[in-house]
Amino acid sequence: MDLPLLPTSVIGSYAWPAWLHVALWAAQRGELGPEDMRETQDDAVDMALRDQEDAGVDIVSDGEMRRAGFFTAAFYGFLTGLRELPPQRRIGVAGHDQRESYEAVEPITAPNGLGLLVEYEYVRQRTTRPIKMPCPGPFTLAGRIKPGAAYRTRWDVAEALVPIINAELKALAAAGCTFIQIDEPSIAVRPDAPRAFVELFNATVAGVDARIGLHLCFGNYVGRPTARRTYRPLFPHILEAHADQYALEFANRELAEIDLWREFPSEKELAAGLVDVKNYYIETPEDVAERIRVALRYVAPEKLTIVPDCGFSQTARWAAHAKLKAMVEGARMVRRELAG
């Protein structure tokens, strides 16, 4: 990739426009056909790219605009062998117990892949900027699947998903995708077996000819984390993962634990989350620049990428756009300082 020093990027998802919510509700009611949804989601990807490019982001994504729910064939919709379960709670404050979940009733397969190739083929035609393709990792994807009669544990479900995801990643690389990010927030949420996770991750990306990123966060459903927010239990084992870049959240934790990068030195790149997606305070470019200067005490500038803490799917679009613009301008400020 032809990138500047301190390149900027996104984690993956972008804020939905109001009309996409309306379209998804209409789809749930059976009011839209498949071509209606395709056109709507194409337009949503174009919008997400336009906002990122307008802000000046160096490495863009499609905003994950096609990943909404089972009726739009998101990841679980591509998997066979699952029975959907009713949510544990339907009323009240939003939480994970109101989300969809599944039970494995037979061995899981994905005869038509996971849909990432379609996403990539579209976004590559709509931008000239470097593209990052995010994909959920097997342990996180297994989190909403009860083992049922087909498997014994969540780890067994995750291992069954490894060849499915690996095939998808290889197809992306064969199509020309050069940067793939595996999203595994569940490992940061449940950091009790870092060595086992590294083995799972390395099997997932084995033989994939692309730059690999690993995104570890503490959850962002309705803007809330779901765990004790510390990466320390993962170190140093996590650095054995076959990843070129680690995307970690720091902004909403006041840059806590960024010193881990010096305590456990490596040649890996760090995509440091320096914009808080869980706060409606809009950072100024100066705020972001100051965070970057702190990060540079621990990370060499050629190894540092500037990103938000997490995706923007739980953030209003006006705030997401403003935060991206501040992030990019803050990075430019420090870039100019480093250039003298």
UniProtKB/TrEMBL annotation:
GO terms for molecular function: 5-methyltetrahydropteroyltriglutamate-homocysteine S-methyltransferase activity; zinc ion binding. Residues 6-332 form the Cobalamin-independent methionine synthase MetE C-terminal/archaeal domain. Gene3D superfamilies: 3.20.20.210. InterPro entries: Met_Synth_C/arc, UROD/MetE-like_sf. One of its GO terms (biological process) is methionine biosynthetic process. Pfam families: Meth_synt_2 (PF01717). PANTHER family: METHIONINE SYNTHASE. This is Methionine synthase vitamin-B12 independent. The lineage of its organism: Bacteria, Bacillati, Chloroflexota, Chloroflexia, Chloroflexales.
